[in-house]
Hints:
This protein is an alpha/beta fold. The chain is built from 14 helices and 19 strands. The strands form three sheets. Strands 1, 2, 3, 4, 5, 14, 17, 18 and 19 form a nine-stranded mixed beta sheet that branches. An eight-stranded parallel beta sheet has the order 6-7-8-9-10-11-12-13. The protein has a two-stranded antiparallel sheet with strand order 15-16. It is globular. It starts with a strand and ends with a helix.
Amino acid sequence: MKYDLLIKNGKVVFRNEVKKADIAVRDGKIATISEQINETADQIFDASGQYVMPGMIDTHVHICEPGRTEWEGFETGTKALAAGGTTTYVEMPLNALPATTTKEALDLKLAAAAGKNYIDYALYGGLVPGNLEHLQELSDAGVVAYKCFMATCGSEIPGDFKNVDDYTLYKGMKKIAELGHVLSIHAENAEITDGLAREMIKQGRLKPADYVESRPVFTEVEAIKRALLLAKETGCKLHFVHISSTAGVEEIMKARNEGQDVTLESCPHYFTITLDQFEEIGALAKCSPPIRDKVEQEKLWKALEQGKIDMLTSDHSPCPPELKDDKINNIFDAWGGITGCQNNVDLMFDEAVKKRKFPITEFVRMIATKPAERFNLRMKGEIAIAKDADMILIDPNHSYTVKADNLYYRHKHSPYINRKINCRVTKTFVRGQLVFDLNKGIVGKPLGKFIQPLKISDREVVQS
Length: 464
């Protein structure tokens, strides 16, 4: 029996164990897993000394096409994702123009994405003031979830994303609960953070530490608590994005223990960059919620080690270099997003698995299995028979230093440049097709497909 692809001799990371095995692929699916497979294949790769893991599912990526393609487009963004070990991503409803808050805008995005993605992709719909009547049509069109901002966002440009008021949040939760979807929330108190920022600027306090002080932990916690209360009233399933504090984590854990359907994510930058480093790096490390100090970071690591963080995402939020320029003297004027999706897997594998002895099976749960389950991407997220053959090879002994020339982003800036990472993704496969090879770079043409969540009837078939 001949296969399309055979990966041999790797240390395969399954749901609950790691063991040496061969993996055979046919028609984009994992067909056979065995201690030794002797049949032939069109392509055979020797993974000796490397881990074979399911590709990352990054559920928090901002691709700015259409409308702001000069910031980051599907082609450059997905090359970076593939090189970093991501095989599927979920694209946020901002920062493209128009934002994905209507069926018409979603159709524009799908048209822009066609034939440009090197990996598979799913889409969020947005919840913003004035689009409650569009939530149903977005669901019918195949979004996997909805996203809203409780923090101030957007611009005065027509079609740009806007943060919700409490009425929209409440009514939106009621409708999203009816649709059976998850609402992902950027949780920060807009009025307090905006007011504190104005105070800082008026006082001439324009440094990274001043920006962090304008967005204190309690503003994240307050917004989390408010959202959880509204979700309890409406029965809406929640997912909190880029949580930066252990106080926020604990509020979410408390609600979960009391029966609410809620999950959370955090991002590599909260675990690998401290406030002191933010002040050294400058605007490239600005994000919201902001980078915290070393004490808060260590507490967040403890929460991760205790299994309280469901998933890791990049919150890849690129922009042109002039919006991150070192010459910007006012940190409040710099773009508040980090370009980082190419270093999701290797950076956190190094920091968590290698340095802190975090179980590799739990690492895979956070980057692949749990995201697939939460967002109903059920053919992905796990190395198992009949699943999509989305796999990566990672060499735990290959150290390298991040350099701008090796980045695939449209604009080659990142807070991780010149950082040494003590492992490396060497190959990325999407449905059994090689899309990235460390020695060859990006391989082939874009093959990514638009992935829609499984409907209830589909899930019953898969589980039967």
